[in-house]
From TrEMBL:
Keywords: Hydrolase, Metal-binding
InterPro entries, A to Z: Ureohydrolase, Ureohydrolase_dom_sf, Ureohydrolase_Mn_BS
Species for this entry: Discostella pseudostelligera
Protein name per its UniProtKB record: Agmatinase
Gene3D superfamilies membership: Ureohydrolase domain
PANTHER family: ARGINASE/AGMATINASE, GUANIDINO ACID HYDROLASE, MITOCHONDRIAL
Molecular-function annotations in GO: hydrolase activity; metal ion binding
Family label: Belongs to the arginase family. Agmatinase subfamily.
């Protein structure tokens, strides 16, 4: 009996305790939406507070004193429009006023000057073409094409490089937003056309190239050379070195060392820095080679690099040191005991995916933003000339390689303009030009 009573009371207790916990659960369940609401409300409040704190701590994008975006916007109004206005006036004079139905009275009948970008004769950046090369001294900078691919050992086509770069340059305005500069207003640029190269003869072409470059530099005008394969890297420097008693350093950006004495028994595009650093005023200790590496550096180049003690940075060096540091170290070596620095930019130094139109594409190179940063830093100290080589439009897609080459050039010019170093090195050309 007792046992039965105890068992019954146990069942009752269990049942009541079950009912109790069920009630609790139900109560809790009924309370949950309210509790949740409270929790959510407090979470939202905390998040708002955080957001406010974040906004408070971050620069206000609409405050002109904080972001570069706004500073750049405000800088635009400080650049004159004098040259542009002159271009419009001349366009109306030479191109005749536009049809009466056109409201914008700056538009002529015949396209003259920059606009429209798809029209006109394609000089580099629509800069004036100088028919008479003797007038090159009237300009700060002269663009010259070197349509030569006789030094190419694999994919040819760089003879069309100057055309490709000029064609896509029609896309650009002379104004750069972030830098707050306008090349048309702040420097003078001309296109002197192309060097008459001899397709089947490297040495004759070299002589023509050296003469052309020496002619331009001897007028105190900075040559910007549109290659062409990299074999032209020797005659361009030889031309510069021939019209100065001063020393020149070279910053050479490339995946390839290009310092063999010969390749296929000739001075091909794998050889320019062997011959350039043989010149009496171009010391190999002032040759800086950036981006070298991969599976395309011929072994005969290596012993020359070691023997001449050139300065070599691989992509891993760039990765580990960073672009700023590499640029700083490169400038230090290139300017050590020299009076000016020349930049030779091989477009294949950039990751192959971005530059399909080149002679020896190699994956793993610089990313475009890294390349542009490097070029800007190098050019900031001033250059006595520069070249962009190995653009091969027949292998290009949608002009992207030509576009990259164009960007390298205008970024270098832009950097020199914004740092006031455009004319810095042009005083070194103190020797009379004696043609080869
Ligand atoms: Mn190369």
């Amino acid at each position: 009996m007792n046992i039965a009573v105890t068992a019954a009371s146990q069942v009752q207790r269990r049942a009541s305790s079950w009912a109790l916990s069920r009630n609790n659960l139900l109560q809790l369940h009924r309370r949950r939406p309210a509790e949740l609401k409270a929790t959510t409300t407090s979470l939202i409040a905390a998040s708002n507070q955080l957001q406010q704190q974040k906004r408070f701590h971050h620069p206000d994008p609409f405050n002109p004193k904080t972001t570069k975006g706004w500073k750049a916007a405000l800088k635009e109004s400080t650049i004159p429009t004098t040259k542009f206005d002159q271009e419009i006036a001349q366009g109306l004079l030479h191109g005749l006023p536009g049809a009466s139905s056109i409201t914008d009275r700056t538009i002529p009948t015949f396209s003259r000057g920059e606009l429209p970008h798809f029209a006109g004769i394609n000089t580099f950046l629509k800069a004036p073409y100088i028919e008479d090369s003797r007038n090159v001294g009237d300009y700060d900078v002269a663009v010259v094409g070197v349509p030569f691919d006789g030094g190419c050992t694999y994919r040819a086509g760089t003879r069309f490089g100057p055309q490709g770069i000029r064609r896509i340059s029609a896309l650009y305005t002379p104004y750069n937003y972030e830098k707050g500069i306008d090349l048309r207003e702040q420097m003078t640029l001309c296109d002197i056309g192309d060097v008459f190269t001899i397709p089947a003869n490297i040495e004759k072409s070299f002589d023509q190239i050296s003469n052309a470059v020496a002619h331009i530099a001897s007028h105190g005008t900075m040559p910007i050379i549109l290659g062409g394969d990299h074999s032209i890297g020797f005659p361009t420097v030889r031309g510069l070195a021939s019209v100065t008693t001063k020393n020149i350093g070279i910053i050479h950006v490339d995946r390839h060392a290009d310092i063999q004495e010969k390749d296929l028994d000739e001075r091909m595009h794998t050889t320019p820095y062997f011959h350039a650093t043989n010149l009496p005023n171009v010391n190999p200790k002032n040759l800086v080679q950036i981006g070298i590496g991969g599976w395309q550096v011929p072994r005969p180049a290596v012993s020359n690099m070691i023997e001449r003690e050139t300065n070599i940075f691989t992509m891993d060096d760039i990765e580990e040191l960073g672009i700023d540091k590499v640029a700083e170290m490169a400038l230090e070596r290139a300017w050590d005991g020299t009076d000016a620095v020349y930049m030779s930019y091989d477009i294949d130094s950039i990751e192959a995916a971005f530059v399909p139109g080149t002679g020896w594409p190699e994956p793993g190179g610089l990313l475009p933003r890294e390349a542009l940063k490097l070029v800007g830093l190098v050019a900031a100290e001033g250059l006595c000339g520069m070249e962009v080589v190995e653009v091969s439009p027949p292998y290009d897609h949608a002009d992207i390689t030509s576009l990259m080459a164009l960007r390298i050039i205008v970024d270098a010019l832009g950097s020199m303009v914004s740092h006031g170093t455009l004319k810095k090195s042009m005083g070194i050309f103190d020797k009379e030009f004696v043609p080869i």
